[in-house]
């Protein structure tokens, strides 16, 4: 599955206009207990879409719809009261979360996914699928998953290994479906 590119870990916006909006929106986002991941402006016909992506800084809890709705109302009020989108005739505010398949770009992204299965690409190494066990200052500890030799047999995991952040070229969560 193709994963859309995301702003680098040290960016919250790809274009100058969105970069101007980010610091104006951030206090409201922080007041709701969330972190600003990205601000994106895109044209969709006569409408401009202002997409604000937010997440929790820590833990594995997902942002619920009530929190997104409350934040959306608060951001809309800020945009209107400060005239931040005044030069845009028609815009839509879209408040969203990164989603499970977003590329993991910062240590906190990894911390939020401890216990989950990751697909990891590394410099000079074969891609692996591994269970994320821990996150340190310098990298992650994972147990690589080996496919079951036959259908219906349990999956095996190798002994945990440390992977330095600087060697990771891409990592994302693998969606797992429970069999109940």
Write the layout of secondary structure elements.
Elements: H1 16-31, E1 35-44, E2 47-55, H2 65-81, E3 91-96, H3 107-111, E4 117-122, E5 128-135, E6 139-146, E7 156-157, E8 161-164, E9 168-173
Parallel strand pairs: 2-3
Antiparallel strand pairs: 1-2, 4-5, 4-9, 5-6, 6-7, 6-8
Helix pairs in contact: 1-2
Function: Required for maturation of 30S ribosomal subunits.
Biased composition (Basic and acidic residues): 7-18
Organism: Nesterenkonia halobia
Structure description:
- It is a single chain.
- With 180 residues, the chain is an alpha+beta fold.
- Helix content is 21%, strand content 33%.
- It has 2 domains: 16-96, RimP-like superfamily, N-terminal (GMP Synthetase, Chain A, domain 3); 107-173, SH3 type barrels.
- The longest helix has 17 residues, at 65-81.
- The protein is elongated and about 60 Å long.
Structure summarized in a few sentences:
This protein is an alpha+beta fold. The chain is 21% helix and 33% strand. The protein has helices at 16-31, 65-81, 107-111, and strands at residues 35-44, 47-55, 91-96, 117-122, 128-135, 139-146, 156-157, 161-164, 168-173.
What's the rounded overall pLDDT mean? 88
Shape summary: elongated
CATH architecture of the largest domain: 2-Layer Sandwich
* CATH class group of the largest domain: Alpha Beta
Give the low-pLDDT segments.
1-10
Number of strands: 9
N-end to C-end Cα span: 25 Å
Tell me the name of the CATH homologous superfamily of the largest domain: RimP-like superfamily, N-terminal
Strand percent estimate: 25-35%
The largest pleated sheet is described as:
6 strands, antiparallel
As for the CATH topology of the largest domain, it is: GMP Synthetase, Chain A, domain 3
Count of folded domains: 2
Helix content: 10-25%
Subcellular location: Cytoplasm
Function: Required for maturation of 30S ribosomal subunits.
Family: Belongs to the RimP family.
Pfam family, one: DUF150_C
């Amino acid at each position: 599955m193709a994963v859309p590119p995301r702003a680098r870990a040290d960016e919250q916006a790809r274009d100058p206009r969105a970069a101007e909006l980010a610091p104006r929106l951030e206090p409201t986002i922080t007041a709701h207990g969330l972190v600003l991941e990205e601000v994106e402006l895109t044209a969709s016909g006569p409408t401009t879409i202002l997409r604000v992506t937010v997440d929790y800084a820590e833990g594995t809890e997902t942002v619920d719809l009530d929190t997104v709705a409350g934040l959306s109302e608060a951001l809309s009020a800020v945009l209107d009261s400060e005239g931040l989108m005044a030069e845009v005739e028609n815009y839509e505010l879209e408040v969203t979360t990164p989603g499970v398949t977003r590329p993991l770009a910062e240590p906190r992204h990894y911390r939020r996914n401890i216990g989950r299965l990751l697909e990891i690409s590394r410099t000079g190494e074969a891609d692996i699928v591994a269970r994320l066990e821990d996150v340190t200052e310098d990298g992650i500890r994972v147990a690589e998953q080996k496919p079951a030799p036959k259908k219906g047999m349990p999956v095996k995991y190798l002994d945990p290994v440390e992977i330095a952040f600087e060697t990771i070229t891409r990592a994302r969560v693998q969606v797992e479906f429970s069999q109940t």
